[in-house]
Write a structure and sequence with these properties.
The chain has 13 helices and 25 strands. With 562 residues, it is of the alpha/beta class. Strand 16 and strand 17 form a beta hairpin. Helix 7 packs across helix 8 and helix 11 packs across helix 12.
């Protein structure tokens, strides 16, 4: 296992062995073009690992001027839904890619069925009436060879007859399967007469009730690739042991110019959970608000949280492509997001936990226009105006009556600067019946506007603020990592991982004060709230209640909490 923290400071772009293989194939004339595909199963939402596969599949086609199709692997109608199909399309487009064509494995059901009949005619497939448990036992183990099924040498005509009955719906689910006849003694357990068709009496979201039998993934996948004209079938490393079966089907079915399968390591990111089964449990148990909960590692969750697509692509690009198993530090993803937003997000002032400050010697009723940079990294954007008045809000943490050492914010002993405005000094404070400070009274130096004074004195503390007369109230959701352990997937079963949820993964603040002009922001708009972090407008916002999600802090603070 490799924790790839070094990539945080390493700007060297990793090599790409996939492109090396393709260069070799093109040079030797194996293929005249490059065609890839992204083949997700529409049974859930895409996650950060899929983002890597999308970038590899589409990025490879782009590099070689080839095509990349989106192909939905809809071979299991009991788990698939149009909702997931639509979500997959949206995620791909959000990442900035466009498929050349969109296909479904179900487009090839007739062709795949004909291939199954061809295998039967060749004596390379048979109907097995063994129970699922019996078939599992006969397959053997990694150290022991399998045992041939008593139905393995069933006559071809009898197999064809039974397969027809399966297809016509005359056979119940689980009673029969069609198996390829390969080698029960193979050292590769995937070659031990794998099941290629099973009975499923379920309505398909595209073909309706036309089929009562459906192909298994290992059979449908290589044939779909071949039918589609794919030259390089790029997939994650868990399919490496399936490659001999992939190649066997293409060879015995006499596919001309068969695709080449190339595997790469999956993306494993600590503090995340990408198992669809476990993610579904999080959703169903109400531990998160849905698949697009901003704490989820789903693409839609990251999008809702405010992660820019270009930052996600930069993250994938920085990791590179390899065959080595590794765990990527979540801090690298956050760093890519932070770097992009620091450069591109407009600045704004927001006070998350407001404390009122009254500047006693500032004229009542007076207001001033204070100019601040929209984005200091993009001077061409210019400046914007914020209103300054006698009463303002600052952060509760920016005031202390009894400050600790090296405290440079507002306190009885120190003068501080208000961002873009004036120097202020503490005078007194008001408290409620419980002794909690409710209002702080200060005085200001009218000759210190913009941080310049006639005596050239400097202060160490600069506070952000909003005018009490020209601000708006907002709800702000402070999101952090969902899990407090590095690998929640290591937990047994699907329940114990819930015990490792980070109790501070979501904090909701309801009385935040923001620049009034932020009320015109649209869903998805992202800002840097000065001294706070990066925030985006959430889809739950309403006309009278704008909601911001914290995308990422100004610096990584998670490791310090553990």
């Amino acid at each position: 296992m490799i924790i790839m923290e070094e990539l945080l400071t390493n700007d060297v772009k990793p090599s790409n062995f996939i492109h090396d293989f393709i260069d070799e194939d093109l040079k030797e004339g194996v293929y005249k073009k490059v065609q890839t595909r992204f083949p997700p199963e529409p049974n859930g939402y895409l996650h950060i690992g899929h983002a890597k596969a999308i970038c590899i599949d589409f990025g490879t086609a782009e590099k070689y001027g080839g095509k990349c199709n989106l192909r939905l692997d809809d071979t299991n109608p009991t788990k698939e839904d149009v909702e997931y199909v639509d979500a997959i399309k949206e995620d791909i487009e959000w990442l900035g890619f466009k498929w050349d064509n969109i296909y479904y494995a179900s487009d090839y059901f007739d062709f795949i069925y004909e291939c199954a009949l061809k295998l039967i005619d060749k004596g390379l497939a048979y109907i097995d009436e063994s129970t699922p448990d019996e078939i599992r036992e006969m397959r053997g183990t990694l150290t022991e060879a399998g045992i041939e099924s008593p139905y393995r040498n069933r006559p071809i005509n009898e197999t064809k007859k039974l397969f027809a009955e399966m297809t016509e719906g005359k056979i119940e689910e689980g009673k029969m399967v069609l198996r390829a006849k390969i080698d029960m003694a193979s050292s590769n357990i995937n070659m031990r007469d794998p099941i290629i068709y099973r009975v499923l009496k379920a309505t398909h979201h595209r073909t309706g009730d036309k089929w009562c039998v459906y192909p298994m993934y290992d059979f449908a996948h290589p044939l779909s690739d071949a039918r589609e004209g794919v030259t390089h079938s790029l997939c994650s490393l868990e399919f490496e042991n399936h490659r001999p079966l992939y190649d066997w089907f293409l060879k015995v079915l006499e596919i001309e110019t068969p695709p080449r399968q190339i595997e790469f390591a999956r993306m494993n990111v600590n503090y995340t959970l990408t198992s669809k089964r476990k993610c579904l449990k999080l959703v169903n148990d109400g531990l998160v608000s849905g698949w697009d909960d901003p704490r989820m590692a789903t693409i839609c969750g990251m999008r809702r949280r405010g992660y820019p697509s270009k930052a996600v692509r930069a993250f994938v690009d920085k990791i590179g492509v390899s065959k080595a198993y590794s765990i990527i530090d979540y801090a690298l993803l956050e760093s890519c997001v932070r770097d992009y937003l620091n450069e591109n997000a407009d600045r704004a002032m927001a006070v998350l936990r407001p404390l009122k400050v009254v500047i006693d010697n500032y004229p009542e009723g007076k207001t001033e226009d204070i100019e601040v940079d929209i984005n200091p990294n993009k001077p061409e954007k210019g400046k914007k105006t914020v209103k300054f008045s006698r009463e303002i809000f600052i952060e509760q943490d920016d005031f202390s009556l009894n400050p600790p050492g090296k405290y440079f914010r507002l306190c009885p002993e120190k003068e501080v600067r208000l961002k873009g405005a004036y120097y202020i000094k503490y005078s007194s404070c008001e408290t409620d019946e419980n002794g909690n400070i409710t209002v702080v009274h200060c005085t200001y130096d009218p000759e210190s506007r913009g941080g310049e004074t006639p005596d050239k004195r400097k202060v160490k503390g600069t506070l952000h603020w909003v005018s009490a007369d020209f601000c708006a109230t907002a709800t702000i959701r402070l999101y952090d990592r969902l899990f407090s352990v590095e690998n929640p997937s290591d937990e047994d079963g699907v329940s114990s991982f819930a015990d490792n949820l980070n109790p501070e993964s979501l904090t909701v603040l309801d009385n935040c004060k923001i620049d009034a002009d932020l009320l015109s922001a649209k869903v998805g708009d992202t800002f840097q709230f000065m001294r706070q972090g990066y925030f985006c407008v959430d889809k739950d916002s309403e006309e009278n209640n704008i909601i911001f999600n914290r995308t990422v802090g100004l610096k990584d603070s998670f490791s310090k909490k553990l």
